[in-house]
Structure formats: C-alpha cells, structure tokens
Amino acid sequence: MEELGMIANINNQHKSSRVRKYYLFSLCSLYFILCSLSCSFGGDLETWRKRAYGDVPEVPVITINSQPSATRNVTVGSISGNLTVSASVTGSATLSYQWYSNTSASNAGGTVVSNATSSSFTIPTSLTSGTYYYFAEVRATGATAVRSNVATVIVSDPVITINTHPAATTNVTVGSISGNLSVSATVTGSATLSYQWYSNTSASNTGGTVVSGATSTSFAIPPGLTAGTYYYFAEVRASGATSVRSNVATVSVIIASVSLASGIEMMWVPGGSFELGRNLGTGGGSDVTPVSTVTLTGFHMGKYQVTQEQYQAVMGSNPSYFHGGSGWEPASGEVQGRRPVERVSWYDAIVFCNRLSVADDLTPAYEIQTAADTGVWSTDTATWGTVPTSTSDSRWNAVRVVAGTTGYRLPTEAQWEYAAKGGNNSPGSYTYSGSNNVGEVAWYSFNSINRTREVGKKAPNGLGIYDMSGNVWEWCWDWWGSYTSTAKTNPTGFSSGTNRVIRGGSWYDSAEVTRSASRIDIYPNYRFYDAGFRLARP
C-alpha cells in the first residue's frame, strides 16, 4: 500500500510538470503573436488593442470611377470645354484634386497646373495650335494618391471653306447696272467669319485692291461702271485661321445701243480669245477641225435676229414666207412683226446694212462697183443695181468693207461663233448658245411647231443675246472654206469663193446643227424660209 501511494504521488508530479510545460508553450506562442502585431503597429500594443476593439479606422483607398475624355479636339479662337474626373474613397476621408500638364501622353511626372484643384478642369482658352496632355491626381488624407489616365487635347487652327463662289461671269449694261456678287463660307469651330471684297486688273485673285465698304457676303456691282471688263473676288477671314480667297468674278459692262431708224438693239461683246471650231459642253457633237485660236477686238452684236417689222421699216417690204396670213400665222400669243425676217439672201442683207447705217447717221460699211461704171466704188446702194438672183455676179461678189466705217454689217464667222459661245468669259462652256440643253435656248424641229417664232422667247446666252441657236439661219460675211490651224487675229475669211457661211440652224433643223460650233455654206443668192440674219458693227 505504501508503495502504491508512492507511485501515485510520482504520477501526479509528472502530470503537473506536463501541464506547466503546456501552459508555458501557450504563453510563448501568444507572446510571439503579440510581438508580431506590435511590429505591424510600430510596436504600439495600445494601438493593437484599439484595433481589436474597433477604435482605429482602416487605411482609406481611392478609386477613380470616371476618367477624363481620352481625346478632345478644339479650335483656336473658340476653345471651350472641360476635362472631368470622378472618384470615391473608402471611409469618410475628403478627396482633393490637382491637375497636371505633361509633354507626353504619360501620367508620370508632369507640371502642376496652377489653380486647377477641382474634379473639373477648364481647357485654357489661350492655347495655340498643337497637342497638349493633362491628367488629374486624386488625394485623401491617409490614402495613397491615384492619378487618372491622360487626356489628350488637340488644338487646331480654324479652317475656312468656301462653299459657293461668286458667279464666274456677270454681264450688265451701262445705264442699268444692277445685281450682286455673292460668296458663302463655313469655318470649323465657332469662330466668326468676316469678308473683304477686292477688285483687280486681271482675272486673278492674287493681290488686288480693297473695295471700300464691301465687307459682307454679298457685293453690289457698282452702278457707275463704264463699258469694259472688271474683276472682283472675296477674301474670307476668321480669327486664328488662314484667310481664303474666292474665285474671280468677271463683270462685263456692255453698251446696248439702239438703232434710231429701226429699233434694233445691239449688245457689246468684249474682245478676247477663243478656240474656233471647238465643240463645247455636254450636249453632244464634235469639233470642226482643225481647231484654231482666234483673238478678236470688241464689237457690237444684234441682241435679236432682224425682225420682219425692222426689215419692213428699212426696205419697205417683207419677203418672209411666214408672213402671218392664213396658214402662216404666228404661234399663240406671239407677235407677227417680232418674228425673224427670212427669205433674204446674203446680197439682200448687205443692202439692208448700208441703208440702216445711212438712216442712223453711221458711215456705211460696204462698197460695190456701181452698175453704171465699174471703175467707181460706192457705198450708196442706189448705185449698185438690182440685187443678183444668181451666184455668178462678179461685181457684187467683189463687195468690200470700207476701213474705219462705223456702220452695220454682217458678223464675220469668227465674231458669230465667239458671240454665240458667250464671248471670252462665257459661264458654263455650253454646246448651244447659252445652255447644254437645246430646248432652253433654241427653236428647232422638235419644239418649233413647224414655223418661225417670235424672237427673244427663249433664254439668252451669257452676253444677253437671243436665238443664236435655232429659229432662222444667220448669214456671216465670210466666203466658205476649210479651217486652218494657225492662230488668227480678227480674221475675215477667204478673199473669194462660191458660197457664203451661214450659222446657227433653224426651226426646221435638228439640234445637232444648232450647236455654236456647227457651220454650213449656202449660195449667197439663196432665199428660203429658214434663212435670216443678225447685225454687227464696231
């Protein structure tokens, strides 16, 4: 028994020793944990204690929820807009902002933008053309600052675009000048456009002279202009933009003279150069070759074909087939006397020219050897004898133009084509006289109702001249012959021949022959219901 008691005592002592060891191990582990926590809080166990009991907040964390726009495009002179960032932070810390600029698309480094300390940053209005980079830094007490993505601001100079240029050619008449030249333009951004009109001495928009007071989109053609050709253009401007100049507008000021004896109106055709025989526009047809460059001095051209009433007033008779009687009536609403005279020969036309010149106190253009004495040349038609009815009359065929005379005459073929095409600056370069659409300017087989029509009922060409395509054929001065390719100045055709040139087509013909470039030849004694004439003079 005593031995058993000793054994039990030994066992108890051994168990107490193990318990003590266990407790000692637990205390060491706890001390190690406390030391670790103490290190994480700077050795401040009190802080750890407060953390354990919720007395110390967590570290704030900033999150950028909305980045500034990656790219913004603005225009000098109208810069506006903002770059904006939105962010949030954990806890109750207050956010603050600082915007930076940089020299590249990086949010490292950068230069502080003065006074840019809110979530929204106004793009500086003073920026010049170029590329700029901005970003925001978002801050909060106790938190690590966070930087936004980079916003690229591209600043461009305003760009002006002229959408509508002034009309290429405007024809006005001395004493009744009116009308405007206009330009329309747009500019990128919201810059304000301004305008300045210039005049020039040639068809160029380089240099020029400022037109005083002409500072709007529309410029009134000066009513005091005298006969001649004038050139204008507009310069469009905007702050920060490169100014842009419009195309040149050519203003031809013509003199409309009126025959006192017959009321025939004459339109001034400014001189210039063109390609004789060149088919223009989109109305079809081909060149009459060889094409040549022709230069002409200015001249007057009849506004209309000579009418029946005008011919009657000068010659005392009306030879026309479409005389207005039963079966030959004018179209509904048209005036009989205003229909073109026809069934006149080339010889008849030159007699008319001299008689009208005398009636208007102009010096007659034509002279012929007198019937009584072929050694004497005269401008007096009374001495010429009977108008030939054949082509073999050598005396009449030798008719010549007296130099320096001011009277009426038939246009040369070059003058006729030049005027039909609208002169040197015809807008559009049309196939027919004034249009690529034959129906707009001509009476021909498709629309004439098989008769001549009152003059001036279709649209005029760029010179204000009517019916140079269709209605009746028009005699020219020239003897017929093939073109040559050499350049010419004021050509008058061949010195002799068999047939004379006739131009323009008629009410009876297809559209093809009413083209401005088309030409045919006829015996000078030809009298038919589709042939008339138009006057010219210096």
Task: Give the structure's gist in a few sentences.
With 538 residues, this protein is an alpha+beta fold. A hairpin with a 7-residue loop joins strand 26 (366-369) and strand 27.
Structure write-up:
It is built from seven helices and 34 strands. Helices cover 16% and strands 27% of the residues. It is rod-shaped and about 135 Å long. Strands 2, 5, 6, 8, 9 and 10 form a six-stranded mixed beta sheet that branches. Residues 3-8 and 37-43 have low confidence and may be disordered. With 538 residues, the chain is an alpha+beta fold.
What is the level 1 CATH name of the largest domain? Alpha Beta
CATH topology of the largest domain: paralog of FGE (formylglycine-generating enzyme)
Largest beta-sheet characterization = 6 strands, mixed
Sheet/helix structural class = alpha+beta
Strand element count: 34
Reported CATH architecture of the largest domain:
Alpha-Beta Complex
SSE layout:
Elements (H helix, E strand, L loop, with lengths): L1 H39 L4 H8 L9 E5 L4 E5 L6 E3 L1 E4 L5 E8 L8 E2 L7 E3 L7 E11 L5 E2 L3 E6 L3 E5 L4 E5 L6 E3 L1 E4 L5 E8 L8 E2 L7 E3 L7 E11 L5 E2 L3 E6 L2 E2 L6 E5 L2 E5 L15 E5 L2 E4 L5 H8 L30 H14 L6 E4 L7 E2 L15 H4 L2 E2 L11 H8 L17 H4 L31 E7 L8 E2 L10 E4 L16 E3 L8 E2 L3 E2 L1
Which keywords apply here?
538 residues, alpha+beta, Immunoglobulin-like, paralog of FGE (formylglycine-generating enzyme), 3 domains, six-stranded mixed β-sheet, 7 helices, rod-shaped, disordered N terminus
